[in-house]
Amino acid sequence: MKIYDWYDGPYPARVRIALAEKGWLSKTEFVPINLWKGEHKKNEFLAINYSGTLPVLELDDGTLIAECTAITQYLDALDPSCALTGTTPEEKGIIHMMTKRAEIEFLDAVSVYFHHATPGLGPEVELYQNPEWGNRMCDKAIRGMYYFDRVLQTQPYVAGDAFSMADIAVIGGMIFAALVKLPVPADCNALREWYTRMQARSSVQQWKAMVDAERACRERM
Ligand SMILES: N[C@@H](CCC(=O)N[C@@H](CS)C(=O)NCC(=O)O)C(=O)O
């Protein structure tokens, strides 16, 4: 299995954490696509993913699967013993809903804020910016954090009683929020407590160790 990604990207983190949950990180080849150099918008990469985003999974026969949710669903189908996308029809429906909600209300909103209301990936890559739209999405992301705080006041995980793809999507939002220095509101105690638990999880620690090692390696170059 081959994954095109960028080592510390919040969306790539989602797939790396899913792979770690399954114990497959070391079996995966990671192909770096440098976001800061805009390699994801070059024709060569657009032929791999029309949307020009990371990550993308490439199977041994050349089949390409983009989108974190689609990749996670594929990994789950290969290994249903450690299900991240649910097993019963109800679990599958709720996990899909909460994952989508994590993207729309939080992670994607932080991403729009980053690309539109901050320097983002720099002037060479950010060819169109709309700061007003970016700032509105920042407000939306903060409302999203309050929403997930309320959810986590009554249940241990984002989609209910078990860790799932929906938790990983909110973790992606927290990683991105930290990158853009968007603090979690001080009164979001349930969200903060949940994130402390998530950061102690082996898969998240493995992801962080990989990022730290790659960052140190790149700094030496
Ligand atoms: N919906 C996509 C979003 C992926 C995404 O936005 N990835 C980021 C990497 S952290 C990216 O490629 N950003 C570059 C850009 O939007 O220019 C998914 O879930 O995979």
From TrEMBL:
PROSITE patterns: GST_CTER, GST_NTER
InterPro entries (alphabetical): Glutathione-S-Trfase_C-like, Glutathione_S-Trfase, Glutathione_S-Trfase_N, GST_C, Gtt2-like_C, Gtt2-like_N
Highest taxon above the source species: Bacteria
CDD domains per the UniProt record, alphabetical: GST_C_GTT2_like, GST_N_GTT2_like
Domain GST N-terminal: residue ranges: 1-83
Domain GST C-terminal: 88-221
Identification of the protein by name: Glutathione S-transferase
